[in-house]
Amino acid sequence: MTAVAVPATRARARVVRPVLVRLGTSVLVLWGAVTVAFAGLHLTPGNVVDLLIGSSTVTPEVRARIIADYGLDRPLPAQYAAYLGRVLHGDLGQSYQLHQSVASAIGEQVGSSVQLMLSSFVLAVVVSVTVAVLTAGRRWARAVFSGIELVGISIPSFWAGILLLTVFSFGLGIFPATGGDGPESLVLPSVAMAIPVVATLSQVLREGLELTLEEPFVLTARSRGMSDLGVRLRHALRHALLPTVTLAGWMVSFLFGGAVIIESVFSRQGIGRLTLAAVGNKDLPVVMGVVLIASLLYVVINILLDLLYLAIDPRLRGA
Predict the structure, then answer these.
(1) How many domains does the chain have?
(2) Within 13 Å, how many C-alpha atoms sit on residue 149's CB side?
(3) What domain range includes position 41?
(4) Where does the signal sequence lie (predicted)?
């Protein structure tokens, strides 16, 4: 009983240790993001109150309240401690341009952005896997799609969006040109954001599949009478996924950044347009809030990726 328990304990330790390390690293990343946001507020030239207010006009009473709320009349370490405390309690500050809290301003827009990012993510994964599985190891197909992928990587998302609008909205009238109502309004912006992601992921996944198809276990599967497509989907694909999963963190970051441009091109509501408006209006609390939310998203995605690695590759679990 003891002999069996010891390997099991070691296997659990191999699973738990990297997760704990990632959690510790994530705390440092979030702390660093909060610290950079605080430093950006206090190191930017100009009066801190004026930076918080932006281009809006406020009464002396509101100005005094801002000083009291942010503790600007206290020493800098005390201000930093108070800022950390507010962030830990979910208080990202107040937007004096929008006349509401930063958390509520972001909360009103996040749904539309998540919808766009999720649809682009699903589209990119489905198309990438399909293209890679069908072209891996097939010389002519590989050559054709490699050229298409090169073009896809080279095209900026905003230019792809403009082309899609010109053809499918202004020309053919199939999809709406602006707005965010209905699933049809998601099609063009999702495609525009997914194009460079598909081009990158399909290349990486195809390389992994081609290497995996040369492994001995693939030959064994073929000798048992399994079809070529079955071998690719049931055996080769899982082993080729690890390098692609590594890119998933980059992909989410890319989609988050791409949403800023795509939402403007297609006149969609979302965090992207909110961020651009905040930058234009010098609404620093909103900009700082978006930076913190982006950092939290990065941390959560990387933790999920670590867990996904363990699910895909049993060797990482000590099995």
Answers:
(1) 2
(2) 22
(3) 17-96
(4) none
